[in-house]
Amino acid sequence: MKFTLIFINVLFTLHSITTYSLPFVVFHGIADKCSNGGITHFTELLSNWSGSSGHCIEIGNGEWDSWFMPFPKQIDIACQKLKKMSELSEGYNIIGLSQGNMVGRGVIEFCDDGPPVRNLISLAGPHAGIASIPFCGVSGAFLKTLCSS
Ligand SMILES: *[C@@H]1O[C@H](CO)[C@@H](O)[C@H](O)[C@H]1NC(C)=O
């Protein structure tokens, strides 16, 4: 009995250690790039707090491509990069910021044979779609036309 309890205890401890040390990747939002101070700081802060290694994954040149590169291509680039990161092979978490969540979601759905994703943590992600164009309801002929189209 005592041995069994110790064994179970060791198992739980090992489990929490492996869960704790899972690395994470960050996908930034639109018009951002991994080399920007804000996202570098964010990734480092999360890494410090969690004790896990974190990486911001860049897609193309970041800023421009986050606006204009088609999503299937963005997801494919992310997938190829993730597959080359051997430190993710035991599993990892994705932190998505804003539009970066769509990349994260795409990776989970389409990145076949990629390293296993344990959690997608969505910060300000548009997973339920976008209800309206920002500032609709504000007066102005141009916006009224745009919002009602
Ligand atoms: C993370 O920890 C390192 C080492 O303690 C420290 O130098 C760095 O400033 C910390 N980064 C942030 C964003 O808090």
CA(first)-CA(last) distance: 70 Å
CATH architecture: 3-Layer(aba) Sandwich
Q: What compounds sit in this structure?
A: 2-acetamido-2-deoxy-beta-D-glucopyranose
Rg measurement, Å: 20 Å
Contiguous low-pLDDT stretches (5 residues minimum) are: none
| Proportion of helical residues | 40-55%
Strand order of the largest sheet: 2-1-3-4
Number of domains: 1
CATH class: Alpha Beta
Annotated CATH topology: Rossmann fold
Mean pLDDT across every amino acid position: 86
Indicate the overall shape: elongated
Order of helices and strands: HEHEHHEHEH
CATH homologous superfamily annotation:
Alpha/Beta hydrolase fold, catalytic domain
Please provide the count of β strands. Answer: 4
The total count of helices amounts to 6
Main pleated-sheet profile = 4 strands, parallel
| Strand-pairing-aware structural class | alpha/beta
